[in-house]
Amino acid sequence: MYAVVAIFNLERAWDEEQQRTVEEQLIPTTRQVPGFVSGYWMSDPAEPRTHVLTIWDTEEQARTFIGFVQGRRPDAEKAGVSYESMTAVEVIGEAHR
């Protein structure tokens, strides 16, 4: 398995509109991408940024997802979102409760 770890900077603090975008657009779209296993979208109310962790079956699928997201960069920037970092890394272990 591979993870895509990303940090996005926001022009403003996290708000209800951004939350709706995540719930109504980003999560449903991401779920439909081949190889998607799971995902977590996280925010820190004290920081104008969001962290995203998605898990993929293969490295190729993880890198394809990165390309898809980067292809949407102009739309993201219009919405006040910039990319700080995004990388694909191999999952070498996991733990669950």
Number of domains: 1
* Arithmetic mean of pLDDT: 91
Helical content stands at 25-40%
The stretches of 5 or more residues where confidence is low (pLDDT under 50) are none
What is the rounded Rg?
Answer: 13 Å
Report, as a whole number of angstroms, the end-to-end distance.
Answer: 19 Å
Q: How many helical elements?
A: 3
The order of strands across the largest sheet is 2-3-1-4
What does the overall shape look like?
Answer: globular
CATH classification, class level: Alpha Beta
Q: Could you give the topology of this structure?
A:
Elements: E1 2-10, H1 16-31, E2 36-43, E3 49-56, H2 59-71, H3 73-78, E4 81-90
Antiparallel strand pairs: 1-3, 1-4, 2-3
Q: Key features?
A:
97 residues; alpha+beta; Alpha-Beta Plaits; four-stranded antiparallel sheet; 3 helices
Description:
- This protein is of the alpha+beta class and 97 residues long.
- It has one domain (2-90): Alpha-Beta Plaits (2-Layer Sandwich).
- The protein contains three helices and four strands; from the N terminus they run E-H-E-E-H-H-E.
- It has helices at 16-31, 59-71, 73-78; strands at 2-10, 36-43, 49-56, 81-90.
- Strand 2 and strand 3 form a beta hairpin.
- The radius of gyration is 13 Å and the shape is globular.
- The two termini are 19 Å apart.
- The mean pLDDT is 91.
